Amino acid sequence: MRVVIQAWWLLAYFHLALRRVGFDQLQKQFTLAVGTEAASMQPLDFAWKMQKLVYLASRLHLLHMVCLERACTLQCMLSKRGIASDLRIGITRLQIEIYAHAWVEVAGHAIGEPKDIGEQFTSLNRI
Q1: Taking a C-beta distance cutoff of 8 angstroms, is the pair 64, 41 a contact?
Q2: Reduced to 3 states, what is the DSSP secondary structure of residue 4?
Q3: How does residue 118 score in pLDDT terms, banded at 50, 70 and 90?
C-alpha cells in the first residue's frame, strides 16, 4: 500500500511539473541517480510489479494520467530502488495521425508494454 501511495504522489508531481516547466526542463532538473535501496527480487520481475502498482495508482488518481507521467514515475521509483532503467519516447504514424508514447525499459525489456513496442513506435530518445 505504501508503494501505491508513493506512486500516487509522484504521479501528481510529474503531472504538475510537466505542465509547469515542460519535459526538457524537468529532465535537466531531475537527474536520476541510481539509489542504494535494494530490490528484493530480480530487477525485471521487480520492475513489472512496480509498473503494475504505478498503473493502479494512476487509475485511482483524481487527475487523468498519461503514459509520460506514468513512465517518469516508474523510472523514478525504480531508480530509488537501485534499478537502472531507460525512459523511451516514441512516435508512430497511422494514416494521417501521429501518435506518441512513453515507456520504461529495464535491461532492454519494455516494462508493462507489448514485446513489439519498439517496432510499433520509432524511438526518439533514450533517457
Answers
A1: no
A2: helix
A3: confident
- Choice between 76 and 40, residue whose per-residue pLDDT is larger: 76
The backbone torsions φ and ψ at residue 57, rounded to the nearest 5 degrees and listed phi first, read -60, -35
Confidence of residue 26 (pLDDT cuts 50, 70, 90): confident
C-alpha span between 110 and 116 (Å, rounded): 9
CA distance 99 to 17: 22
- Longest distance between any two alpha carbons in the chain, whole Å: 46
**DSSP states of 12-67 as a string?**
HHHHHHHHHTHHHHHHHH------S---SS-HHHHHHHHHHHHHHHHHH-SSPP-H
Which of 27, 4, 120, 11 lies closest to 64 in space, CA to CA?
A: 11
Burial profile 21-32: b = 16 or more Cβ within 10 angstroms, e = fewer:
eebeebeeeeeb
Considering the chain, what is the average pLDDT of its residues? Answer: 88
pLDDT score of 30: 62
All three cell numbers of 85: 532503467
